[in-house]
Amino acid sequence: DKSLQLAHEAIELTRLRGAKYYEARALVTLGRIHLAKDELDVSYKHLADAIKLARSHMAYSTQLTALAFLGELNLKQERYETAYGWLNLVLEHESAEFWVKEKARELIANVEKPRDGHADKTISAKLTLDQAVAELV
User: Fold this and answer.
1) pTM for this structure?
2) DSSP of 109-132, one letter per residue?
3) Taking the CA atoms of the chain, what radius of gyration do you get in angstroms?
4) What does the buried/exposed string (b/e) look like for 42-73 if buried means 16 or more CB atoms within 10 Å of the residue's CB?
5) Among 57, 34, 52, residue whose Cα is nearest residue 44
6) Do residues 59 and 124 touch, judged by C-beta distance below 8 A?
7) Is 19 helix (H, G, I), strand (E, B) or coil?
8) Nearest-5° angle of CA 60, CA 5, CA 90?
9) Which pLDDT score is estimated for 75?
10) What is the pLDDT of residue 136?
11) Inter-axis angle of helices 20-36 and 40-56, nearest 10
């Protein structure tokens, strides 16, 4: 697949140049490609790696972008509470990019009612960015 090839090339080039911010962004892209193919375990690995790398370089917008797509991944796995927590954090955080906030709104709005009847989209405890990524690093 050409998209996977290009994403791997981007990661390789960023590593050669020591461009950690862009490496984290390329890992998000790679995670998104696998998410679109429903390769959820592989997607999770790349998105979590992106968060770890972005966190070490205080790249908040990249962390939030990866969290938005981890939210989507968790929705696919019917882990609604985790997904809504991360998506709501993205919506509320000032460092999230506009298009990422729009993606989070779309995901929350379009989710189907869970089969078990637990359709509550609120999380009792508000997450901070550090709390949300702590379990991933």
Assistant:
1) 0.83
2) HHPPPPTTS------SSPPPHHHH
3) 15
4) ebbebbbbbbbbbbeeebebbbbbbbbbbbbb
5) 34
6) no
7) coil
8) 20
9) 93
10) 65
11) 160
